[in-house]
Amino acid sequence: MEFRHHHILDISALTPEDISYILETAANLKEILTRPIPKVPTLRGKLVAHLFFEPSTRTRLSFERAAKILSADVFNFTARMSSVEKGETLLDTVLNLKAMGVDLFVIRHSMAGAPHFIAQVAGTRVINAGDGFHAHPTQALLDLLTVKEKKGTLAGLKVAIIGDIRHSRVAHSGICGFKKMGAEVYVSGPATMLPSAREALGAKVCYRLEEALEGADVVMALRVQKERHGKDLFPSLREYARQFGINAERLALAKPDCLLMHPGPVNWGVELHPELENDPRSVILEQVTNGVAVRMALLVLLLGGTA
Ligand code: NCD
């Protein structure tokens, strides 16, 4: 199959066939991670710039790891300590780095649509590494890969996403991706953090947490996106934990072989009870490893190396 996309901006732009192809490519490339020397020459001579205007640990470092395994050169740019602090715009930053030979930009920005804007005007490949509350397509892809690996299929599964759905780009891209691949998505959380049925992208909105959890194949907890709230949407994190935190008792409502997921960073004691830290149902660290594989796949597919 030919991959006809120049950018990865939003999961909604991908067909189920595109997604399957990305997941297959990632699953194949994952083998490289197990080699004693995990390095291949596929992207030698390519330059990838990681532009992060918001904090990140997993996404930024897994992109860097992916690029380096594929032998691409990398620029790791964080807004702090750069000329952004002197007033340089995102576009000027991108054009200047492009003048140094950048082939692909990975962009995280607090403004929804920033990577889309750069993709339109910069004339280089762009991957969205999270734009505001809007989209986080590579997170959705790594989540799909993790579930596909564990369950063998995505179609027909019940996926429960719990927490701050309304302000979460992980939820928006996750709902879209899981639905595209034939899963049923249920969302629950405090009413102030839930989308209306019209805004729920086809997910079933449950005001009762138990309804989302009962019989679920996948339970994904999300962090409260406090930085994106204008005002307090919940009295306290302790209260949040009591009412919506996933603990062993609540997880027992899901299928016995359910997968427990979280995109990180986890606030233990808030969205997940510490008693689940070493739970065998947790695939949280496997999500992280799959993040490297998915990002390797996207770099290869966009930069035209052969896998
Ligand atoms: C998420 C993000 O930044 O959107 N983290 C991630 O990329 N793995 C989730 C979050 O910050 O809560």
Q: Count up the helices.
A: 10
Strand order, main sheet: write it out: 1-5-4-2-3
Order of helices and strands: EHEHEHEHEHEHEEHEHHEH
**Class by SSE composition:** alpha/beta
Question: Mind sketching the topology for me?
Answer:
Blueprint: E1 7-8, H1 16-33, E2 47-52, H2 58-69, E3 73-78, H3 90-98, E4 104-109, H4 114-122, E5 125-131, H5 137-151, E6 158-162, H6 169-180, E7 184-188, E8 204-206, H7 209-213, E9 218-221, H8 237-244, H9 248-251, E10 259-261, H10 284-303
Helix pairs in contact: 1-5, 1-10, 2-10, 3-4, 5-6, 5-10
Bound molecules: N-carbamoyl-L-aspartate.
InterPro entries: Asp/Orn_carbamoyltranf_P-bd, Asp/Orn_carbamoylTrfase, Asp/Orn_carbamoylTrfase_sf, Asp_carbamoyltransf, Asp_carbamoyltransf_Asp/Orn-bd
Function: Catalyzes the condensation of carbamoyl phosphate and aspartate to form carbamoyl aspartate and inorganic phosphate, the committed step in the de novo pyrimidine nucleotide biosynthesis pathway.
Domain Aspartate/ornithine carbamoyltransferase Asp/Orn-binding: 156-302
Description:
- By secondary structure, this protein is an alpha/beta fold.
- The chain folds into two domains: 146 residues, Rossmann fold (3-Layer(aba) Sandwich); 147 residues, Aspartate/ornithine carbamoyltransferase (Rossmann fold), CATH 3.40.50.1370.
- It contains ten helices and ten strands.
- It starts with 6 loop residues before the first strand and ends with a helix.
- The site of N-carbamoyl-L-aspartate (NCD) has 10 residues, from helix 2 and helix 6.
